[in-house]
TrEMBL record:
Tree of life domain: Eukaryota
Domain Pyridoxine 5'-phosphate oxidase dimerisation C-terminal per the UniProt entry, residue ranges: 206-246
Ranges of residues in domain Pyridoxamine 5'-phosphate oxidase N-terminal: 67-189
Alphabetized SUPFAM superfamilies for the sequence: FMN-binding split barrel
The protein's name in its UniProt record: pyridoxal 5'-phosphate synthase
Keyword set, alphabetical order: Flavoprotein, FMN, Oxidoreductase
The enzyme's E.C. designation: 1.4.3.5
UniProt keyword Repressor, yes or no: no
Spans annotated as Disordered: 1-33, 160-181
A GO molecular-function annotation: pyridoxamine phosphate oxidase activity
Amino acid sequence: MASNKDQSKASKLIFAPGEAPPDSAQPTSQQAAQFNVGALNRDDLDADPFQQFHKWFSDPALKGTVPETVTLSTAELPSGKVSSRMVYLKELDDRGWVIYSNWGTSRKARDVESNPYASLCFWWKPLERQVRVEGPCERLTSEESQVYYDTRARGSRIGAWASQQSSGLQPNGSSGDDGRAQLEQQVRDVEKKFEGVDNIPVPDFWGGLRVKPEMVEFWQGRESRLHDRFKYTRDGNGWEIERLNP
């Protein structure tokens, strides 16, 4: 007869996913994965978090991965509801981290309009490293956004104009259509508008968002969940660095 504990586990769709320990006599025994790729000490860190991030971002061990993938989290006020999504880091300078998106109809646009604070979280599994960035954000000018926009494939530039991001798409009633036809028509309309035009202007509702850091944390996984964590916080014109409990 199964114990209450076994019945409780069986009722869960997912419970304590992990991997079999290397020396386990029972291959089905699962343990949470251990972090043992590296370590991080205070002496390893650059005094400037921008330079430290660039060092980690450029690590040869990340070659073949997509290190620019990052989770952007925003929260609307006054409800405080948080939303997160995966985006791509496109720029970094001494002012902050820049991502690009639709700022007319998207959920993130509504969030930022009511609450200018945002956070970024990078996860680099090959090195078992994480970086978190928190701070207020600001829109880039159209002139600044145009520089990046011009590097995008033509289809992506057309798509930025065509997509009313996060707005609903309505089925047209034909068999099997779930709203995709409306999106494709929007694309055709924009393609017609810019037919023969090479230098497509950046939409006024689309562009860059810079997260200006007040806090940057570098996290290195360690065994037994005793991770190395270092937090940079603004200290006048410089940065204060503090080791945190894992």
